[in-house]
């Protein structure tokens, strides 16, 4: 597509997907989170049968569960179409986050950390949805008989990354443009 035909916004978006050397440490962090997520899910899937609980602490269990929906099992019983919807959503979100990460200035380390955690987690859950049709969850916290929905390392990375972005938006201070 020639520059005369391609809109500026599309040209900029495609340019942001070009790998930049400054993004490599953050992509490595995303890869480490992804590896930890996939290894832990494989270990739990091969060590427990579905629904089995192992008490680790009085407030924490390991349990093998499959979530075909989104967070808190949203749309889990939607009939199957949600699998491909969430796969497409994760691909688009991952590309967006990767492009955002590539556009950061060197001084935006907290934002880069947050995006790396979200990216690694998004790809970890994308892997599960694409290959299995569900996300493997296994970390279950509870107090007495009240259980928080089970989650996995990818979910934890996404959550910590989102909290960091929210923190940054309220309390963070970006360096001046001329010093970045």
Q: Would you write up a description of this structure?
A:
There is one protein chain. The chain has 180 residues and is of the alpha+beta class. It contains five helices and four strands, in the order H-H-E-E-H-H-E-E-H. The longest helix is centred in the first third of the chain and has 24 residues, at 24-47. Helix 1 (8-16) crosses helix 3 and helix 2 packs parallel to helix 4 (109-132). The protein has a four-stranded antiparallel β-sheet. 55% of the residues lie in helices and 13% in strands.
Quick synopsis:
The chain has 180 residues and is of the alpha+beta class.
Proportion of β residues?
Answer: 5-15%
Radius of gyration: 19 Å
**Poorly predicted runs:** none
Instruction: State the distance separating the first and last CA atoms.
Output: 33 Å
Mean pLDDT: 85
Task: Count the E strands.
Answer: 4
Structure annotation, total helices? 5
Q: Spell out the helices and strands N to C.
A: HHEEHHEEH
DSSP helix fraction: 55-70%
Q: Quickly give the structural class.
A: alpha+beta
Strand order of the largest sheet: 1-2-3-4
So what's the overall shape? globular
Tell me about the biggest sheet? 4 strands, antiparallel
Produce the secondary structure layout.
Layout: H1 8-16, H2 24-47, E1 53-57, E2 60-67, H3 81-103, H4 109-132, E3 135-143, E4 146-147, H5 153-171
Antiparallel strand pairs: 1-2, 2-3, 3-4
